[in-house]
Amino acid sequence: MRDEEARNILIANDRGGYTVPNGRVYPFQWNWDSAFVALGFATFDRDRAWVEIETLFKAQWTDGFLPHIVFWQDDPGYFPGPERWASGTDPLTSGITQPPVAATVVRALWDQGGVADRPRLEALFPKLMAWHRWFWRYRDRSGQGLVVALHPWETGRDNAPEWDRPGAAIDASDVAPYVRRDTSHLDASMRPTALEYDRYVALLDFGRERGWDHGRIAAENPFQVADVGLTMILLRADRDLLALAEALGRQDDASDLRERIALAEQGVDWLWNEEVGAYGSRDLLTGEPSGFITSASFLSFYAGLKHPDRDARLLGHLDRIGARVRYLTPSLDPADPGFDMMRYWRGPVWAVVNYMIGQGLAETGHGAMAERVRRDTRDLIQTSGFYEAFDPTSGAPTGGDDFSWTAAIWLCWAG
Ligand code: DGY
Predict the structure, then answer these.
(1) What is the CA(31)–ligand 1 centre distance, in A?
(2) Does the annotation mark 402 as catalytic?
(3) CATH number assigned to the domain with residue range 2-414, chosen from the 4 options 3.40.50.300, 3.40.50.10840, 3.30.360.10, 1.50.10.10
(4) Which protein family is named in the record (predicted)?
């Protein structure tokens, strides 16, 4: 029953070669949404799964950058639209990126399909490689093996409390007037605050005023955070890209990837917060650790990291949090005073993050906890439907409905 519903959501949100996350709230192609959506399509239409990723990479810039939004056609229901970004590209896009899950998804498609898909893999591989090199070059300028986010939207966890203190450095006092559209579709209590939006738009304007020159923006941006989510996800994706490089016999790329993986395995130490016993993001400009335990703290398993002492502390947190809320994994530790079960990335559970956490736990030998995370995801969707996110205490839906990546995760993992 739910399987058919999930497939129908993907089909209904298909705009011809790409899938919108949700027709009203997010009416364009989003980068990491599309990658997860491909996993859903792969369960019933493998060709369509590849096409989703191929379409996304048609919007890649010549420097390897892959935008977080592609505006294949305009839609007045979303702000900030293509005119505010003014990318000057064809197609028009945003000027910031998003978590690089695409290589991991392409590896999954390749593993499922095998040799018949080799021409498609050969065509995509250099594009994936160029995007990863873009991250290494522009988002790890000091070569620490980390990924620096220059906009909260790049992390995918838009209003996580990890951005509050670093965000205070953003001057949003003279942002040109704008009208939010998200709060005309959804209750404002589920969305970022006005101050957060002013900061998002100020950073957007900052990049546009620099002509989306990624080198210059990386040097001058007032917000520079080594994000635990992006760092773990890129490390995982580098490992998957390495497997693809080896399958294709691309020795030079494979050796660069090995080097970057080794660097990242060391670099993540800087994100370990011994005091709280968890990984967390860190402000690159001040060196200050965020001090928060979020769902991204548990992506170290997905990144393939094995560190018995740290893993034990992380599993201890999952046990504690899992005893406090009905559904793992809340996007913020429920013991935090700022925990808000309905507000976007300050409490709600997200199916895609659970997927990454669950996969990582299973792969690193923590089967019981992996199964709890998968079961909770299944129960949430079974009970409440294919929503954007869910209240971890009651399971109540939050955000948009008929959500593509929630449907995809049901099909490929949770259901
Ligand atoms: C939004 O508009 O809320 C998106 O998350 C930005 O990518």
Answers:
(1) 11
(2) no
(3) 1.50.10.10
(4) Belongs to the glycosyl hydrolase 63 family.
